[in-house]
Amino acid sequence: MGKFIAKRLGFGALVLFVLSLFVFLLFFVAPGDPARIVAGDKASAEQLELVRQNLGLDQPMTQQYLHFVGRAVQGDLGFSYRNQQPVSELILRRIPVTISLVFGAVILWLAIGIPIGIMSARHPGGFRDRMGQVFILLGLSFPTFVLGMLALYTLYFLPKQAGFTLFPPSGYKPFLTNPLIWAWHLALPWATLALVTAAIYARLTRGQLLQVLGEDYIRTARAKGLSERKVVLRHGMRSTLMPLVTQLGADIGLMLGGVIVIEQVYGLQGVGSLAVQAVRNQDRPIIIGVVLLGGLFIVLCNIIVDLLYAALDPRMR
Fold first, then answer.
1. Where would I find the ABC transmembrane type-1 domain in this sequence (predicted)?
2. What range does the domain containing 276 cover?
3. Are both 181 and 250 inside the same structural domain?
């Protein structure tokens, strides 16, 4: 088990090394003045000189890269000269919003998608299966921003015109201040993100479970007199969990890097909206920081998925 974990950690470190090298080459070795790229087109000569000193652009390329990586490992992701703030502080201020949005939506889409997938697989070709497939098709067909705008119109603007409020349109309240207000402000973003993603998990659960329920050991379990509920949940779902865990790890890793569409629709000031503003303003230090942070989240989630594999399947150990 220790060797298995060491291999996964080593592979994750390799991925982060390749990502950091790619980012360094893209922003600091590409044609043009790296100081101008980092500081922006409107930077003064004094600012450019300060950037060159901070980045050590007068040093050999290898030392520049080691300096870049060393600062990133210590949590120093650079300095935003447009915002006049360290990038790490900007991201740390925004990341609670993104984490709250992602993990609340994860709980919802698992609670919705997996039961619908199980229901469809247990009644293939029947009415429940057709209803489940309708949900899957609608969820996969609706763009996230369309569903978000529809939710805002039906659950906020229409009730407001009638003189009452069901949900707030946007905003984020800290969890520790008041958990109920925190959840109330995130209810619409959670529902929007969860309904779209739940369709993916319902389809995946249905497809995997249909294959598993035709296996010999499932027929043996039924022949022993086990209830259908125990056959599906205890024996069928155990084999279905592997692809679900894989999909979940990838989704969480990607979304922690910024749920751009949802944050834009609901005006949430998370990592995704920070990345959009950075691209719009050509604030390259923030772009570099968000890319590195997103890569770190993806690597960590994949390592967690590999550890869950080992826990679920003894053959992996």
1. 95-309
2. 91-316
3. yes
pTM score: 0.82
206 is a domain residue: yes
Q: Kindly state whether residues 28 and 176 are assigned to the same domain.
A: no
Q: How many domains does the chain have?
A: 2
Instruction: For residues 260 and 156, state if they share a domain.
Output: yes
Say yes or no: 136 and 68 in one domain: no
pLDDT in tens, 118-168: 888 888 888 888 998 899 888 888 888 888 888 888 887 888 777 777 777
State the CATH number of the domain containing residue 109.
1.10.3720.10
- Nearest by Cα to 290 from 299, 303, 279, 304: 279
Rounded Cα distance between 126 and 124, Å, is 5
